[in-house]
From TrEMBL:
Positions of transmembrane segments: none
Species name: Marvinbryantia formatexigens DSM 14469
Protein name: Carbohydrate esterase 2 N-terminal domain-containing protein
InterPro entries: CE2_N, PCW_deacetylase/CE, SGNH_hydro_sf
Domain annotation Carbohydrate esterase 2 N-terminal: ranges: 12-121
Length: 343
């Protein structure tokens, strides 16, 4: 029995490109589809478009997490997610572990003919949105043996948005999450690491649902579809590449240009979400404090009681590598406590 992507009992979460409702495309990390069913097995039909790295999708079935490795085949493929299950009620969430290193088209679930589909669980009443880079996406999070150390060699296998501080924070706050995170991204084009050598910045990405020209038509996001109560803007640490001008000359022309662009972006976010709490932050990944100083300056200049600057206890000095699971938990505890006191 094929369960169409348009089935009324499927529950989607995340900024998903669904202009074709029969073939929604998952682009951002933590995007998901959830199904409740009675039956002994379940499979999924997917079509993957790889940009780089090996690509994986996450699966949580009745609370147990696993993953499936996608291929580079251009055609749709069938992946068995579970077999020989007890013939009772089950809940399965299929989610995107990684950022735009790939796009995956969801083409439906397959259930045994005698299976039944149940109404989905209720969505959280609270809504959260995070704009960030690889740390917000959970990149290399599962390389726990390298906690506090530089990254190991990897090819995408350690990345998992479920273990990002962003999703951990949302779960602690019992909030739905839209995770607008992309590894390597800086604020402005021509800086950072994403989409080398023609670097694309968050100024280009933040209001899109598809943002890589090579992947297809660039599409704007309809902000009326999702209104968060809290927004975390966690951009400002990849911006040091290729030149760390904020560290070298924090009062210089390039630094002032960055602050002007950052202020314009936060002002644009406020325009989309007039009532939201907007939290300005970076992460505990090592970077020079001058970037956080610049963000603090912009926050003061905005003079908005619902736009606040947050620093982690180990902000900018926690680790030279990506944030591992334990470090993400540390960040999530601090961020959730900060947001929770202001919700």
């Amino acid at each position: 029995m094929l369960v169409s992507p348009e089935h009324k009992y499927l529950q989607y979460s995340g900024r998903i490109e669904d202009s074709n409702p029969q073939a929604p495309v998952f682009i951002f990390p933590a995007s998901s589809v959830t199904i409740r069913f009675c039956g002994r097995g379940i499979a999924v039909r997917l079509q993957n478009r790889r940009a780089y790295w090996n690509n994986y999708m996450g699966v949580i079935l009745d609370g147990a997490q696993s993953r499936i490795c996608l291929t580079e085949k251009p055609d749709r493929e069938r992946f068995v997610l579970a077999e020989n299950l007890p013939d009772t009620e089950h809940t399965l969430m299929l989610f995107k572990r990684q950022d735009a290193c790939h796009e995956v088209t969801f083409l439906g679930f397959e259930l045994p003919e005698d299976a039944g589909i149940l109404p989905p669980p209720a969505k959280p009443e609270r809504r959260m949105e995070v704009y960030g880079d690889s740390v917000s996406a959970g990149e290399v999070a599962e390389a726990v043996e390298y906690t506090g150390k530089p990254d190991p060699e990897h090819n995408g296998e350690y990345s998992n948005a479920w273990f990002s501080y962003a999703w951990m924070t949302a779960r602690k706050l019992k909030a739905e999450l839209h995770d607008i995170a992309q590894g390597g991204i800086a604020l402005m084009d021509k800086e950072g690491y994403f989409h080398a050598p023609d670097y694309i910045g968050m100024e280009h990405v933040w209001d899109k649902v598809r943002y890589q020209p090579e992947a297809g038509t660039v599409r704007k996001w309809d902000f009326a579809r999702y209104t968060p109560h809290v927004v975390v803007a966690a951009v400002g640490q990849n911006d040091r590449h290729p030149v760390d001008y904020m560290k070298e000359d924090p009062a210089g022309k390039r630094a002032e240009i960055w602050k002007e662009h950052y202020k314009s972006w936060i002002t644009a976010l406020r325009g989309k979400y007039p009532q939201a709490l907007i939290v300005l932050a970076t992460t505990i990944l090592e970077h020079d404090h001058s970037w956080d100083d610049a963000i603090g300056q912009v926050c003061r200049e905005l003079d908005d009681k619902r736009i606040v600057h947050f620093l982690y206890r180990r902000n900018g000095c926690g680790t030279p590598g990506h944030i591992r699971i334990g470090e993400a938990e540390e960040m999530a505890r601090e961020l959730a406590a900060f947001i929770g006191s202001r919700w």
